[in-house]
Amino acid sequence: MIDHALQFAMSCYGLALVLNLYRIFRAAGVPDRVLALDTMVINAIALLTLLGIKEGTTVYFEASMLIAMVGFVSTVAYAKFMLRGDIIE
Amino acid sequence: MEMAFEIGVSTLLVIGGALGLIGSYGLIKLPDLMTRLHAPTKTTTLGVGAVLIASMLWFAGRHGQINFHELLISIFLFLTAPLTANFIAKAHLHRTGGYADLPPPGDGAVWAGQQPPEDEQVDEPAILPEEGVGDAL
Amino acid sequence: MFLSRLVPHPFLTLLLTFVWMMLMNSVSAGAAAFGLFLGLVVPFLTQSYWPDRPRIHRPLKIVEYILVVLYDIVTANITVARIVLFVPRARLQPAWVVIPLELRSPEAITVLAGSITLTPGTLTAEVSSDAHSILVHCLHAPEPDAVRDEIKQRYERRLLEIFP
């Protein structure tokens, strides 16, 4: 049963990533694209965690933690760039 | 017991997957950026939270090891989601000049983004000597 | 006096120790010792960069507040998911709501803004220049005044008890 649930969740997140990609290509402006990228990072974390459950290994958690941190910092950097036109002043 | 455990983890996984998909679908469906911000900040964050909790339960029950990493990741995501949303909202208002359409805050104040940045007045005199140096060279 | 200069933020020390142990994923004495070492060194070295410690009036109320927010996060997701799936674009009524604040401490306003973003259909976008009101965007709010009253009743009243 857990296999079916895993399969379902993984297809959901795969589809979610495709939807995010669509939003990155057809966006109304730069903030829109940054938002789609941020959502993509969160979805990638979920997909990586699901892969960890499937393979029965905990190695991926460190990777997803790093992705979470780098994703947050990069979103903040993008937002700063959009607000000020510069990241480090 | 084993059955109930599997049902619990599977339910969390299905809920997490569905919430993640709904969040990303909202990103496509909702009409403008401010409404679109709602879907990922709430729905996707809880979706990932459900998946991480499911993974923690799964490793605790099946492999007998308790991982705190998932808990840390979920706490981190829940703490950063509002900040990201706030930053993107500010950038959106800044870029589209949307401040004109907002209701005023009252007490004669303005919204923080409408003020000129504080360090701009400090920066301007600092540029002048540099130009002087450039002329001398 | 000497001790308070050596350990300027006791709660931060504890928090860093626990986070280090969680990162190491072990409850061994070695992890605790190194975590405690980091918890002592990091606040000491960054001492001059920290603003004043917020004064917390009733620490037990924080637990109640966290439980209320967690419950609201779950209901928020059901509400938002339903709006995303079933409310057609044309019938959606987004609204800007201004919420005048009674809270004055910056930490309390930050906590309030964060919990507003995580809870039903609302999102904090801006704070006013005098920090006396915040701007909230609602995803679907036929009655914006009700949203304002609920936020003031549910979150700000509780936060006022925690941060005086």
From TrEMBL, chain A:
The keyword Cell membrane applies. It comes from the Bacteria. Keywords: Antiport, Cell membrane, Ion transport, Membrane, Transmembrane, Transmembrane helix, Transport. One of its GO terms (cellular component) is plasma membrane. It is a multi-pass membrane protein. GO terms for molecular function: sodium:proton antiporter activity. Pfam families: MrpF_PhaF. It is found in: Cell membrane. Its main location: membrane. The chain crosses the membrane at residues 6-22, 34-53, 59-79. Belongs to the CPA3 antiporters (TC 2.A.63) subunit F family. This is K+/H+ antiporter subunit F. It comes from Allgaiera indica. The lineage of its organism: Bacteria, Pseudomonadati, Pseudomonadota, Alphaproteobacteria, Rhodobacterales.
UniProtKB/TrEMBL annotation, chain B:
InterPro entries: PhaG_MnhG_YufB. Pfam families: PhaG_MnhG_YufB. Keywords: Membrane, Transmembrane, Transmembrane helix. Residues 104-137 are annotated as: Disordered. One of its GO terms (molecular function) is sodium:proton antiporter activity. The chain crosses the membrane at residues 6-28, 40-59, 71-89. It comes from the Bacteria. This is Multisubunit potassium/proton antiporter, PhaG subunit. It comes from Allgaiera indica. The gene is phaG.
From TrEMBL, chain C:
GO terms for molecular function: monoatomic cation transmembrane transporter activity. It holds the Pfam family MNHE. Keywords: Cell membrane, Membrane, Transmembrane, Transmembrane helix. It comes from the Bacteria. It is found in: Cell membrane. One of its GO terms (cellular component) is plasma membrane. The chain crosses the membrane at residues 12-45, 65-85. It is a multi-pass membrane protein. Belongs to the CPA3 antiporters (TC 2.A.63) subunit E family. NCBIfam families: PRK08965.1-2. This is Multisubunit potassium/proton antiporter, PhaE subunit.
